[in-house]
Design a protein that fits this description.
alpha+beta; Thrombin, subunit H; Pdz3 Domain; six-stranded antiparallel barrel; 12 helices; 27 strands; 33% strand; elongated
């Protein structure tokens, strides 16, 4: 029995020492929070409701309807970070997010979506002062906004370098989730340079820090007390935190803030290409050792890429010396180049690498970009090819409408390699195995000479968008 007691005592002592050792390894955030919290602010906005819009809570007519807790109210209004429509005639400030002070003279950084469409922006400081802020500038593409309050000697944050952030390091967020000011949450960096849908120009920092509605625009700190990001988005199915949070890197945010402070707007570099990911089969068809790079499926007219001689079918491997592992990395890098500067683009073309010098242009607005693209039209049928598809030539009207100089239109897809590759009616085939399609006769000849049991690249235009797909002829 004494031996059993001795073993239990040793086990308890081991567990105690292990827990103490683990506690010593965990970071202590107290000093960081104490020093950094005064520079974090709560942001509210006033938005005037259109006269024809009804109160979204009009169904709550009984006593106490205004006392519905905020945590439940967000279930009655779309995305939680968007405030409910103010009541007509008497709009009130609504707490929408967070921000942080960049300098002692009152410059503040937050998210664009926090202050979007606001008539008035109210900043509440840590000492409970409320100041009206001027919107110096706001950039929807990066979701960054720069504000200014009329104050002096304000506490401000230290900024770090998001380029030095490593996966696995500890980070801490301070913000106002659901209006609870100066709430602190901690976690680790889960990934860097994460690309999200509709956010082409931001390589996000992904963390597992608990972020909820109201944290938007707040700072993400490293253990040195430096801001390395702006908390911006969460991945959620419930409206609350589910373990995936995304922050705008501070390097990107500060570049945007500097431009907003200088000119009130942001200019970005533009290459003028439409790109897609390189799959394993496409990598084989282009002679690459592994799936990497950005495949150019369309070169926009009157663009820097067209002037430099980039072509459809080029695979961009590096940009200004930086490797492009995934196609989503290219827009991040191009956007940070100043318009007018030159960039070196290394591409794989016809099985060989070459370097092309490009003078980067100014990114047009969304409407101007849309004008450079057009939709497909109905083809006219012709004879069936060896691929099991029926094609026809482009008419002059189709060439003008699609802005294409050559190609053939798929009007029917039967059983065969074409169907296996994913061709559908209405696709316009513009390039096959590295050769541009000028005529149907040439297309037949290229098909007849295709190698067996090896993937070759096939470029098509589908519903106005160009893409490459791998085509394989089975023996």
């Amino acid at each position: 029995m004494k031996k059993v007691h001795w073993l239990i005592g040793c086990l308890l002592m081991t567990l105690l020492l292990s827990s103490q050792a683990l506690a010593q390894q965990l970071p202590d955030f107290k000093t960081l929070v104490r020093e950094s919290s005064p520079a974090v602010v709560n942001i509210s906005t006033v938005q005037k409701a259109p006269e024809e819009m009804a109160d979204p809570f009009s169904q709550f007519r009984g006593p106490g309807s205004e006392d519905i807790p905020e945590i439940f109210r967000h279930f009655f209004r779309g995305f939680p970070d968007i405030a409910p429509t103010p009541r007509r005639g008497n709009p009130a400030p609504r707490s929408l997010g967070s921000g942080f002070i960049l300098s002692a003279d009152g410059y503040i950084l937050t998210n664009h979506h926090v202050i979007r469409d606001a008539e008035q922006v109210i900043v509440r400081l840590s000492d409970r002062r409320e100041l009206e802020a001027e919107v110096i500038g706001s950039d929807p593409r990066s979701d960054v906004a720069l504000l200014k309050v009329d104050a002096r000697n304000l506490p401000y944050v230290k900024t770090g370098r998001s380029a030095d952030v490593e996966v696995g390091e500890w980070v801490l967020a301070i913000g106002s989730p659901f209006g609870f000011d100066h709430s602190v949450t901690a976690g680790i960096v889960s990934a860097t340079e994460r690309s999200l849908a509709n956010d082409t120009y931001v390589p996000f920092i992904q963390t597992d820090v608990a972020i909820n509605p109201g944290n938007s625009g707040g700072p993400l700190f490293n253990l040195d007390g430096e801001v390395i990001g702006i908390n911006s988005q969460i991945y959620t199915r419930s409206g609350g935190f589910m373990g995936l949070s995304f922050a705008i890197p501070i390097d990107v945010a500060m570049e945007v803030a500097d431009q907003l402070r200088d000119s009130g707007s942001v200019s970005r570099g533009w290459l003028g290409v439409v790109i897609q990911e390189v799959s394993r089969d496409l990598a084989e068809s282009f002679g690459l050792d592994k799936p990497s790079g950005a495949l150019v499926v369309n070169v926009l007219p009157d663009s820097p890429a067209q002037s430099a001689g980039l072509r459809e079918g080029d695979v961009i491997l590096t940009f200004n010396g930086n490797e492009i592992a995934r196609s989503s990395e290219l827009p991040h890098q191009v956007g940070r180049i100043r318009p007018g500067d030159k960039a070196e683009v290394n591409v794989m073309r016809d099985g060989r690498q070459q370097t092309i010098s490009v003078t980067i242009g100014l990114l047009p607005d969304d409407d101007q970009l849309a004008e450079r693209r057009s939709g497909p039209s109905e083809p006219e049928p012709s004879a069936e090819t060896a691929l099991g598809i029926v094609v026809s030539p482009l008419t002059q009207e189709q060439r003008e409408r699609l802005n294409l100089n050559s190609g053939v239109v798929v009007s029917q897809v039967n059983v065969g390699p074409g169907a296996q590759a994913g061709l559908v009616n209405g696709d316009v085939i513009t390039m096959l195995n590295g050769e541009r399609i000028e005529t149907i006769e040439q297309f037949y000849q290229i098909v007849a000479e295709l190698p067996d049991d090896r993937a070759v690249p096939l470029r098509i235009v589908r519903r106005g968008s160009a893409m490459f797909i791998p085509l394989r002829i089975n023996p």
